[in-house]
Amino acid sequence: xxxxxVQTVSEERIPPVARxxxxxxxxxxxxxxxxxxxxxxxxxxxxxxxxxxxxPTGAARAVRRVAHAVEELSPLLPHDAAYHQAxxxxxxxxxxxGFRVPDFLDSLLAFQPAAHRADGLQHLxxxxxxxxxxxxxRNLEAIVLRMVWPDWLAELxxxxxxxxxxxxxxxxxxxxxxxxxAAVLFPETISVREAPxxxxxxxxxxxREAARFRRVTAAAVDILxxxxxxxxAAMVHDQKRCEEAxxxxxxxxxxxxxxxxxxxDPFMIKQRQPFWMYGLEELRCDLTAFKDAVELAADxxxxxxxxxxxxxxxxxxxxxxxxxxxxxxxxxxxxxLFAYLHQHDVVRWTDNTxxxxxxxxxxxxxxxxxxxxxxxxxxxxxPKLVHWFAGYELVATYxxxxxxxxxxxGPDALDLSLPPRKLVDDVLPDEFPLSMFYEALSKKLKNVxxxxxxxxxxxxxxxxx
Length: 465
Known about the structure:
Layout (H helix, E strand, L loop, with lengths): L6 H7 L11 H12 L19 H18 L7 H16 L8 H6 L11 E8 L9 E10 L2 H9 L6 E9 L9 E2 L16 E4 H19 L5 H7 L2 H18 L18 H24 L5 H15 L10 H15 L3 E4 L2 E4 L4 H19 L4 H13 L23 H4 L12 H15 L6 H8 L1
Parallel strand pairs: 3-5
Antiparallel strand pairs: 1-2, 2-3, 4-5, 6-7
């Protein structure tokens, strides 16, 4: 990988022969996992009565290959020894139990990457899991990754952005569940008998985010004839700079979910709420990262200006036109940011050219952040349904609702005798359709966005060359 953020550090600290992916046991492990994955049902179990299913002896043999490979590779990773020992036991218990729904709670609890965040440190991770924006089934997956924890980031986390659970990571190699749009490694996705009382880590692949950002942004800039400032243009062509921007963005975004004047658990992951509320929460976290990046830039942090560009470009170019139009809350947030900047004359689409007022962009973007923060602060004193309508009103001020929307007609159009969670059923799958601008941009960018599936810094560089 020619431009991975941690490569230089990694080569200095860990001899090339010690790279997990170069050990003969890694392809054996990877092949065994890929053999097992097609046998698994959605919940991770193996149904031996299904067509093309293996016999139990063959499945047990494949799992033993995984376990033996883990044991061979584990000496390269002494910091993960306890995890790998628990992993081998969980694999054996899965086989001994007849390959029912896998339970890897013991190995999950033993895996503690956030406890030792060292730049360039490798981890070998094997779990039955689904991958966000990737594979929805709990298949066995194997990933080799490296920690991204340079001194400047560690100092910011220690002094300004306490986030002891956050792990910036990059790919070394992976199985099929990550040959997708997945860019996170979260413990919530792993198959366990019961959820732990609290999770102790969360990882985001900044190399995939950066490579995807570079490809989509470069295409959008060309399509829209956008004249980038010199430093922004240089950033888009620099994988290392983009990775540094994303790992800082991710760290601030991640902690923001639990910081601020919040009604209560704003993401409400286990509760039903209209998707625009999720969209506002994700946008709030991104705009907080943008706002803090403005302050960090004033304090002389080199990566901070790049974070501002990353938030603006990813949110305005990629997010609105990525994914299906069914409750797409990230798309909604991107649409809202663009519309807000457009209606405040920071962004203009004139003569088939996108113009951005770079001087006013930080001020107006921070203004949208303040509007969302006020929504949250006021929400502390509101009933849930009133808060949802206030969120709808904020979005609808800048984005036109679907003409057939019941929610757009106001409370009188809804059966308010129902509990709020039932009223979510009256939300249209595409409550705020794409504008004509984004409909056109979507057609021009869809192939580029599709090409980023499974992208890594290495694959992006090969194509660029």
